[in-house]
Amino acid sequence: MVEQMAVSGVSFELSEEQKQLQKMARNFTAKEIIPVAAEFDEHARFPEDIFHKARELGIVNMNIPAEYGGVGATIFEECLVSEELGYGCTGISTSISTNGLGALPIILAGNEQQKQYWLGERLMEQGQFVSYGVTEAAAGSNVVGIETRAERRNGSYIINGSKTFITNASHANFFTVFAKTDPAAGHRGMSCFIVDRDTPGVKVGRKFDKIGQRASDTAEIVFEDVEIPAENLVGKEGQGFYIAMNVFDHSRPGVAAAAVGLQRRALDESVKYAKERQAFGVPIYQHQAIGHKIADMAMNYEASRLLVWQAAWAVDSGVTNPKLPAFAKAFAADMATKAAVDAVQVFGGYGYMKEYPVEKLLRDVKIFQIYEGTSEIQRNIIVRELFR
Asked: Under CATH, what is the fold of the domain 16-125?
């Protein structure tokens, strides 16, 4: 008789608490997101009511520590939720999760007063929105190339410039904004600031009309002689680039997890359709050309999720390794894109029609290869770390 050996070390089994969190997010998605996703997409409607329902449930602002009113969730726990929300609609999930991104500079580098006020009072007590302001028209992948300026003047900072493609900008009550305080210093000349939307000179510009993730709001912000108090500087002058890079290491696993959720939706829809649809006298999954596509979807979904879990575990464990979030973000984004394309192919002509869900998946998925660092930038990071 062969005795069973206990496996030590790594476990892929979720704890009971994690399973409950996953189930709660899955039920919320099934009840609140999936039934309305197509309507929100068609009308490019911002899901404010869904956001506040998610906030009451505790799946908004998850990363805010308990001492400021949050639940202090780990990156891994955020990823569990992000996958479930992404399964339902990545546009709505992006709207729900952006507060976590906008709050990260304050969580990672803010002082106690900033955390008490902006995290505790503004986000948790008042239920406000925050957006993250890095990207500019001439500076996307090249973060160091931002041109927004912040000049120290009489105990304040005067900010001039603009940001583009800013998620939730039309609804944000404040922004975490990156600007150059010393343009001659390269990446060491960038700093991070908290800017209240009601500050004179802050203007939120036009909302972009997008191909996909239409339920998420994306707009421009313009700063014209915006005067903010020096106490709104996050960290120290010149630390902005390092704060931004640290933010991305923390945020990319969650973005990748949403792509994983979209992959699982493409897989589930494809399996369901391929069982029902018949061609040449048998269900189409029995044709190798279709069956293998779906098998690849399943393999790539599992591999993507494991990379996300590894990246989340590393950040939660205090392991500084930008390569791991880059692995997860690039692979999950690329494989989600492949899954969406293949799902449309499985559905054939019907997959091209709006009445079937895979059409929306194809439009929604492309942005995963672009935002939070393009797939090309992720590969640059991987190369840099491999040859460091």
From this structure: Butyryl-Coa Dehydrogenase, subunit A; domain 1 (1.10.540)
User: Is position 276 annotated as part of the catalytic site?
Assistant: no
Longest C-alpha distance within the chain, in Å? 81
Counting beta carbons within 10 angstroms of the beta carbon of residue 284, is it exposed (0 to 12), middle (13 to 18) or buried (19 or more)?
Answer: buried
- Per DSSP, 194 falls in state E
> What residue ranges do the domains of the chain occupy?
16-125, 130-240, 241-386
- Give the Cα separation of 371 and 377 in Å (integer): 10
Residue pLDDT tens, the chain, 388 long: 334 434 456 789 999 999 999 999 999 999 999 999 999 999 999 999 999 999 999 999 999 999 999 999 999 999 999 999 999 999 999 999 999 999 999 999 999 999 999 999 999 999 999 999 999 998 888 889 999 999 999 999 999 999 999 999 999 999 999 999 999 999 999 999 999 999 999 999 989 999 999 999 999 999 999 999 999 999 999 999 999 999 999 999 999 999 999 999 999 999 999 999 999 999 999 999 999 999 999 999 999 999 999 999 999 999 999 999 999 999 999 999 999 999 999 999 999 999 999 999 999 999 999 999 999 999 999 999 999 9
Q: Is 205 left (phi over 0), alpha (psi -120 to 50) or beta?
A: beta
Query: Among residues 296, 217, 194, which one has the least CA distance to residue 51?
Result: 217
Q: How many other CB atoms are found less than 10 A from the CB of residue 13?
A: 6
Residue in 77, 372, 376, 385 annotated catalytic: 372
Looking at CATH, the fold of the domain delimited by 241-386 is given as Butyryl-CoA Dehydrogenase, subunit A; domain 3 (1.20.140)
* CB-count burial class (<10 Å; 0-12, 13-18, 19+) for 367: buried
Can you read off the two tokens belonging to residue 234?
Answer: 């996050």
User: Cα dihedral angle (249, 115, 185, 204), rounded to 10 degrees?
Assistant: 90
Residue carrying structure tokens 């925050």: 130
Phi/psi at 218 (5° precision): -135, 125
CA atoms within 13 A on the CB side of 296: 17
Helices (DSSP H) in the chain: which residue ranges?
16-28, 37-42, 48-57, 75-88, 90-109, 112-114, 240-276, 288-316, 323-347, 357-365, 375-386
What are 161's two structure tokens? 């410039």
